[in-house]
Amino acid sequence: MAESHLRSLPEWTRLAAHADRMTLPENHLKHLIKQTSRLENFSISGCELFYDFTRQRIDAQVLKSLVNLAKARKIKQRFNQMKAGEVVNTTENRAALHTATRSFSADPVMHDGLNIMPDIRRIRDEIRQFSADFHSGKIAGVNGQLFKDVVVIGIGGSYLGTEFVATALQSLADKNVKLHFLSNVDSDNFGAIIERIVPETTLWIVISKSYTTAETLANSNMVLRFLTEKGLQAKNHFVTVTSKGSPGDDPANPVLKSFHMFDFIGGRYSVTSAVGGVPLSLYLGYDRFEEFLTGAEEIDIHANTASAEKNIPLIAALISVWNINFLGYSAQGLIPYSSALSKLAAHVQQLNMESNGKSVSSCAEPMDVPCGSIIFGEPGTNAQHSFFQLAHQGRPFPIEFIGVLNPGNDQYTGKSKGVTNHQELWANLMAQPQALATGKDDKNPARFFPGNRPSSTLLINDLSPKNIGRLLAFYEAKTVFEAFIWDINPFDQYGVELGKTMAGDIRNEIAEKNKNPDYQFDNRDSVRKFYLDVLFNHKI
Amino acid sequence: MAESHLRSLPEWTRLAAHADRMTLPENHLKHLIKQTSRLENFSISGCELFYDFTRQRIDAQVLKSLVNLAKARKIKQRFNQMKAGEVVNTTENRAALHTATRSFSADPVMHDGLNIMPDIRRIRDEIRQFSADFHSGKIAGVNGQLFKDVVVIGIGGSYLGTEFVATALQSLADKNVKLHFLSNVDSDNFGAIIERIVPETTLWIVISKSYTTAETLANSNMVLRFLTEKGLQAKNHFVTVTSKGSPGDDPANPVLKSFHMFDFIGGRYSVTSAVGGVPLSLYLGYDRFEEFLTGAEEIDIHANTASAEKNIPLIAALISVWNINFLGYSAQGLIPYSSALSKLAAHVQQLNMESNGKSVSSCAEPMDVPCGSIIFGEPGTNAQHSFFQLAHQGRPFPIEFIGVLNPGNDQYTGKSKGVTNHQELWANLMAQPQALATGKDDKNPARFFPGNRPSSTLLINDLSPKNIGRLLAFYEAKTVFEAFIWDINPFDQYGVELGKTMAGDIRNEIAEKNKNPDYQFDNRDSVRKFYLDVLFNHKI
After folding, report:
1. How far apart are CA A481 and CA B369, in angstroms?
2. CATH code of the domain containing A313
């Protein structure tokens, strides 16, 4: 086990000294970006990605010390151990093998003494076959018509990644298939969906590893009542993605098809497993899903083999740690200049905040530095017209910009002010990092821009399935690299347990009152009693 | 003008001392919430809202000092001045009269020596008439069929509030009308819309006060080319909401109808003006829009007249300032337990961060305390399965929970684990603030919950237009009250100017290259040159 007391590491001490130096006026970003060969020294290409960190508040010495920190923390070895199936999720005594789900290598991946790749391939084949049958009409609605609506029932990691990918690749989707997400237990989520679907030609995919998630069960039960009312049955309309032998994989409750998921793949890392594979193959076609997997696999190989200096997710993770622990930023913006990437921030928000929002090391010792940060974002240029006032003149936070080089859907573009819509978008993508970094002096304090606000820019060529796979795996690798630097466990989530337990207690009280209207709520906690009374009185 | 040096105010000094006291172990929230009459003393009702701040890290002394701060800063007087049409937007020498747009009072509102209410009423009448004609088919597509799709072309304040309200009231919408938003200049935004509409029965509403917003112009131009290709014309398919006499209100470019907006209503405060009124009336019917206005008006009156101690947005603003300036939180979560409120956080993010993300006072002196905070959120319970790990065990941030007492769409609800879906939702809404506040001891640090994480809960009765109006006006009043405490100007946004200027420079270079393919990009800035070359080479 690595040392959890980061502050005592010589590399950490050195970085702290660099941080003091970087606050000096001569190290303002407006000066740093004028350094000779700034672009050459502070950007990396690989896997058809371009990662530009010229506008981060670092210089050559900081970069070198960060790379030394990565080496001291052996983070590449850890990534390799993760990929090889070692028990990196120590608190839950599990491996974390999301990388295996997109491996097309002939090499075995061993887990508990068994090669898991045959199982992974079998499930891919099942998805391919099911998707082909779905598109050909071999599997169809009870009236023999093709399924037209697919509803994913799942919450958190069971849908956010899929929603990101489906939105990003929407222009490639089968025009006859609509994809919906029933995540929230709120009946309005269900109400909005049933207005838009035809029950006879709707397929429901219930996704839950344990098949005990309260929200997903409550929603499946509601859908089952809806189907019954329409004279339809789960065996013709339900598909499950769940652990082998879970209540969702029980022959006593027949469904159209069950796909298996494994305990060595965590929810927020599961997009490339059957969790994403089943809905995305129905929406986009299996081949596009496989292209997406190959993009993710490329990044896994890059993360595992590229030298630290040329390793895109590793350098991005080091910059995160630098910004969080040495420059003291507690939040990060994620701003893709692409409407199609509008769901990326919500996915990365979960991926990163649930993985790294921790206060203990992987061996459960309290950390001596803060970990994780708040991640939020909206697409650009929209964000410029929303919260960028605060980014430029209020409290600073680092931003990751994402640019897509070649536009989709530009058949109607002409020129406005002499440029196409896509060029207008790029003029803004280029201007914002510059404005944030350099700022502008002005005698009028209301028009003064302090600058020195750091950002990175990540470029992809276009919105192909392969590039979306690269983007997904980039954020996964970045997240686990951050965790490996801190030596925290990015695969558990004990922080969600207390709320679940308390909700269970309250649920029991409500259930009691449902059974027995004379039941009086416990008055030991007057706030809780107030809410329960209000809930049953239906009036504030 | 009030003093911009807040730190020297006696009330400020007193609050700073309270903050020290509140960090003592005996003032952990798990103890505070057990105080006698905690609920009675730390909650307020009014306008059918219930605002519970029992789980904020405050006690009676803090609350009293906060109220004294509000009085010292004369924030209620300022609200009154704003509502009465005084020039509260000092830097731009304008009034801020969004409250007038929902006034149904017979009293005049004077601006520049004129009563503006007749104009406000005239525009409401025009919206009512246009909406009636739209729904009756008196105004229809060129083929005589009713319009079926309405596309709002606008960015930032020209659409975010409307999107929030439309999503919240979706279940009440005219089932024959679909509402879309074309905000981003990214051609993918346009591409996704044209796949879903029928051009002959689509109405486009272009919203821009100046009619010079680069994104909105570029998008309108793209739509005009699209219409021309389809043999259609702006005079039958375009509606504009813009300033009188702007290029969007020019008889030389005829449109179906122009609605006027005024320079005394800022974009992010404009939902209750024609900006929200035109699209919302077409989508929901004018009467529902007016109901929505009456809810907003109620809160304006409450904010203006309720005593500080019983004033919901004022107390909420004081708590924001307490959390930001005295307890040091730099971000705030906004978590509505309602899918229908899924766009609330994006709206409030703009409203609050663009208004209060400032560093200078209203008389342009540098502030001596930080203002504004990052605002982000997703609906609950979704957020619990996403970033709540960090909220419970990582870095703390205050949260505003929102509960809707009576569900919509619950016709298929039954019981799962003995409770309905809505009750399950509420069990979670009740559990989270409690878990965040009290935490849980555990010998295993990985299962230890520090607690002491503050939150408020705001309840509304249901998703009626009136309650959504109340919610909208609550956040507007809260935002301006925060600004009045700091004495910053919540109505300007100079922070967005530098990026615009730089984008303009880059746009000019791109336009030059479009005209002259031999043009070589200026190589004084190698990073900029790199991006421009990449853009024209179409390859990373």
Report:
1. 36
2. 3.40.50.10490
- Whether the predicted model's global pTM rises above the 0.95 cut: yes
Burial class (CB in 10 A: 0-12, 13-18, 19+), A240: buried
Q: Which domain holds residue B423?
A: 6-97+293-493
**Per-residue pLDDT tens over the stretch B202-231:** 999 999 999 999 999 999 999 999 999 999
Please choose, from the candidates A427, A406, A430, the residue with its C-alpha nearest in 3D space to the C-alpha of residue A417. A427
Measured CA angle at A385 (ends B398, A451), to 5 deg: 80
Determine contact, residues A334/A400, Cβ cutoff 8 Å: yes
In this prediction, residues B102-121 reach a mean pLDDT of 96
Cα A357 from Cα A375, distance rounded (Å): 11
Q: Would you say residue B499 lies in a domain?
A: yes
| Residue B499 touches chain A, beta carbons under 8 Å | yes
Reference B424, options A508, A539, A153, A183; nearest CA is A508
- Residue of chain A nearest B339, judged by CA positions: A189
* Burial category of B236 from C-beta neighbours within 10 Å (exposed 0-12, middle 13-18, buried 19 and up): middle
From the list B185, B439, B538, the residue facing A381 with the nearest CB is B185
Q: Which of B258, B291, B324 represents a domain boundary (last residue)?
A: B291
How many other CB atoms are there within 10 angstroms of residue A128's CB atom?
Answer: 17
Q: Of B393, B432, B457, B519, which to mutate for an interface test with A (greatest number of A Cβ within 10 Å)? A: B393
Q: Which of B247, B267, B291 delimits the end of a domain?
A: B291
ipTM attached to this prediction: 0.96
Residue A522 has pLDDT above 90, yes or no: no
8 A C-beta contact, residue A245 and residue A261 = no
Of chain B, the percentage scoring pLDDT greater than 90 comes to 94
Backbone angles phi, psi at A260, to 5 degrees: -95, 145
| H helical segments located in B406-464 | 421-438
Question: What confidence tens digit (pLDDT) does each residue in B449-494 have?
Answer: 999 999 999 999 999 999 999 999 999 999 999 999 999 999 999 9
pLDDT average, residue stretch B390-415: 91
Residue identified by tokens 């002939």 is A106
Contacts of B234 by beta carbon, 8 Å cutoff, 6+ apart: B224, B227, B253, B254, B255, B256
